[in-house]
Amino acid sequence: MEVTAPRARPVAASIGLDVGGGAVKAGTVVLGQDGTLIRPPWPQSAPAGAGIDAGGEVRTRHHVESDGEALAALCAQMTHEQYLGLRSVWPELPVTWGVSAAAWIEPATGRSVFSPHLMGWRDRPLPSDLSSALSSVAGLPSAEVAVFDAENRTVPTPWVINDADAAAWAEARWQGTDDLLTAPTTAFGDGRGDRMVLVAVGTGIGGALVRDGVVDIGAHGMAGEFGHMTVDPSGVPCPCGNTGCWELLVSAEALAARAGRASARSVMDEALAGDPVCRRAVAETGRWLGRGLATLTAVLDPSRFVIGGGVAAAGELLLEPARAELVRHLPGGRRRPVPPVRTAALGNRAGWVGAAGTAVERAGWPVTGVLAPTG
């Protein structure tokens, strides 16, 4: 399909990928002259074997968690598809790329220290692995630069970030709409005065704390591993090496097992349709979620919780029991404010939007807000 660039040329563009156990999601955002990230104003298509939604997110399922090279190659192929789409519209526009991963990432180098679910990406130099994989796909040498070469002589090295940190960065900058014509000028903006905690519930549980618009990654880049808090010392072993971790009780796998279904998606679909067994399973998962939120409130005293990840699609069936359990187990009870709990505005897109946004920001373009697709 032939597409035409809009009249207002953006400042830069960025490709984002979100790599989790079982799927890789990808998308593109462009940076407006006011510092706001928006979705590309042209139709997008999905490569063979992938799906695409109304917001332009491309999703490819995989079973290569244990094969680091194959996973990097899949990411490179998806990045290349996004890049070719960009170049067909704006041949000279600066383009960066970022990758969020379900792994503990060393902030200075992007190296993965450990990942409970991406076994092939444990202790790997992910920026160089991914750059080399894209070099093979594009047939161009890689370079230690942040921006794609407009003359197509080299491919750059991606910015790599923890998936929950990326999602939290994007949620803190969300401005409430994806309407490019009627975007609000006031909303959460860059998150100033905010103390937001993101809890992403999917294959496992990721998390992040955002203070005044800045993601607090901790002293070693490993803050926010809320899913590996011990909540049941006599519970089952976790792939992280611990026992009785929170995510073993609140993950997609836990939800599916609780309802006796093949997948969390089927549990949520049936629960929303009124199935009593699935509704009870979602409610029990919500109660365990709320108990963990109470612990996080005692430690972090957040102004709000944002619940993301695939399991958040259960909506109020999950959040209502979570809120009740949060109040029930909150130290201080009625004597202290209870932080509101809501689902992530960007949904499952927050990871790749955050990866793309932090990549363009690290390359030198300030980002003031996110109007990325929510539909």
- The amount of helix comes to 25-40%
How many structural units, i.e. domains?
2
Q: Which structural class matches the secondary elements?
A: alpha/beta
| N- and C-termini, Cα separation | 23 Å
**Sequence of secondary-structure elements:** EEEEEHEEEHEHEEEHHHHEHEHE
Main sheet record: 8 strands, mixed
CATH architecture of the largest domain, please? 2-Layer Sandwich
- Which stretches are poorly predicted, pLDDT < 50 over at least 5 residues? 1-7, 177-192
Q: What average pLDDT do the residues reach?
A: 88
Q: What fraction of the residues are assigned to beta strands by DSSP?
A: 15-25%
**CATH T-level fold name of the largest domain:** Nucleotidyltransferase, domain 5
> How many helical stretches?
9
- As a whole number of angstroms, the C-alpha radius of gyration is 20 Å
